[in-house]
Amino acid sequence: MITGKNYIGNQLSNSGTTTYKTFNPELNRENDTVFTEANSEEIDNAVNLASEAFKTYRTVSGKRKAEFLNAIADEILALDEELIQTYCSESGLPEGRAKGERGRTVFQLRSFADLVSEGSWIDATIDTAIPDREPLPKSDIRKLNIPLGPVVVFGASNFPLAYSTAGGDTAAALAAGCPVIVKSHPMHAGTGELIASAIIKAAEKTGMPNGVFSNLNSSGIEVGQQLVSHPKVKAVGFTGSIRGGRALLDLAAKREEPIPVFAEMGSINPVILLPKALENNADSLATTYANSITLGTGQFCTNPGLILGIKSNGLTNFIDSLADKIVEINPSCMLHPNIIGAYENNKTKAISQQGITIAANYTKEVQANYATQIVTTVEGKTFLENPTLHQEVFGPYSIVVQCENKEQLEEIISSLEGQLTGTVISDDNEAANYPTIIAALQNRVGRIIFNGVPTGVEVCPSMVHGGPYPASTDSRFTAVGVNSIKRWVRPFSYQDWANNLLPDELKNENPLQILRSVNGILTKEQVI
Fold first, then answer.
1. Exposure string (b/e) for 48-69, b if CB count within 10 Å is 16 or more?
2. Could you tell me the pLDDT band of residue 255, with boundaries at 50, 70 and 90?
3. How many angstroms separate the CA atoms of 388 and 265, rounded?
4. pLDDT of residue 221
5. Which residue, among 110, 107, 108, 88, has the nearest Cα to 98 in the 3D structure?
6. What is the pLDDT of residues 326-370, one digit of tens each?
7. Strand partners of residue 361
8. Are 438 and 431 in contact (CB under 8 A)?
């Protein structure tokens, strides 16, 4: 049952005075539950509890953390239809999407459980002593990863489950040994509270310390600002706009003790259409990209907002076919009136730029909060000269840039800001003839797709969901997959410590049987 309250550790609280409701965009009306925004006292209590819990939780074994993470997954599934119905009522997204995202959330939690249960992720590295080395003896030095401390996670507007309360950031931080305080997204506060209740139940069932998790409501920015500024918070996870992520990054940098902000932000995900591929497959590519642009009403961070090709009959045929096919797709509901309001404003700004031609525009009447798709096109020279055209329009919008030649195509790619993805559409071995194009794209993105679409992010160890700024604030890390745990730890070395005082991961006998680097060799063997 949803109460509209904050979880401060395992206690529900609503001592604040500011209230708000979530919104059902499909019905175009507010939902019934009244939520209370966390006040300064509740924020302080949640952070202090997390800081105290860290003293214990940081020492919890991988096996026990795995039990906790699996228990969270079980409790989420136990929420059953109440969760699905609440998700849909707060997002306007269909039931199938809700169930799919729930499955992804559960899978992420279980993947981290497997990772920490096995234990080798800790990156144990041992360099044994050489006491008789000349001219100086060598010490025994052993390294592993240790958790940073309490982490603040901001829920994302477009993924109420997979990138929110128990999403990838939370799962990774808990797996690393960091307590988590979630700043719930106001658009799906009810969904967030249900998930928070599941995490608290799992924590209690598996004996985790009170304060290992809290969930705070907020309709504005003040709660998030106070959390990021709190001296006991040690890191931040964020998925959202460039403006929001950059504000948090700047705020964290101004602290007396600056802390890392791992933000995954805006991206227009350039798609490169090579000439032979267009010559032979313009129509089928248009079908594929009409579906990709409108998927989820364009509300994915990997939406293909920029399509690049060299002028040719094939590119003209693609634009014409894309224009025909995209208006045949029925519009769908956006997440919130604020989201569609921003879409309409940004779309209007984009199409008002000089040199823009509208190739396709869905003009039939739609119900409230439904977004109409649009495709525009522009000359390469105009695109290069106007940075406004490089900005994300969050929604079912894409711009096709017609380049004069491959040199201009490369110049445009190099002029782009950092992106999450890039895509190359090639016929046979055509891409081999464009090495500088591929190299330029690699320098701008975190992941390159070959002959596919960028929409869809597989949860697996080799996935990189990140990229050069402003796609993310630190391109060295991914926000998806088990390797995202590396954001919430730091390397730590022990020098010349007695074996019995070392953590199990670094002891000579290797009691956890994890894979370790010993004098440069990966092994599970004991140190002799």
1. bbbbbbbeebeebebebbbbbb
2. very high
3. 17
4. 96
5. 88
6. 999 999 999 999 999 999 999 999 999 999 999 999 999 999 999
7. 374
8. yes
What's the chain's average pLDDT? 97
Q: Which two three-digit tokens encode residue 463?
A: 């996935």
Place of tokens 């000349």: 134
| Partner residues linked to 298 by β-bridges | none
- Active-site residue, selected from the candidate residues 264, 392, 410, 505: 264
Pairing of strands 35-36, 29-30: unpaired
pLDDT of the residue at 399 = 98
Q: Is residue 33 scored above 90 in pLDDT?
A: yes
The answer to whether the pTM exceeds 0.90 is yes
**Both structure tokens of 166:** 């128990």
Tell me if residue 264 is catalytic. Answer: yes
- Catalytic position from the list 67, 75, 90, 301: 301
| Rounded Cα gap, residues 479 and 302, in angstroms | 13
One-letter amino acid for residue 512 of the chain: L
Can the peptide bond before residue 135 be classed as cis, meaning omega within 30 degrees of 0?
yes
pLDDT of residue 44: 98
Radius of gyration of the chain (CA): 25
Task: Judge whether 403 counts as a catalytic residue.
Answer: no
Contact criterion met (CB below 8 Å) for 319 and 377: yes
Query: Tokens 């996870």 identify what position?
Result: 237
Secondary structure, 3-state, 23-58: EECCCCEECCCCEECCCHHHHHHHHHHHHHHHHHHC
Region for residue 206 given its phi and psi (left: phi exceeds 0; alpha: psi -120 to 50; beta: otherwise) = alpha
CA 431, chain centre distance (Å): 29
Q: What is the C-alpha to C-alpha distance for residues 296 and 277, in angstroms, rounded to an integer?
A: 27
- The residues pairing with 143 across neighbouring beta strands, listed in sequence order, are 125, 493
472 is written with which tokens? 């993310």
Determine the length of the chain.
528
With a cut of 90, say whether residue 266 has pLDDT above it. Answer: no
Count of Cβ atoms closer than 10 Å to residue 40 Cβ: 11
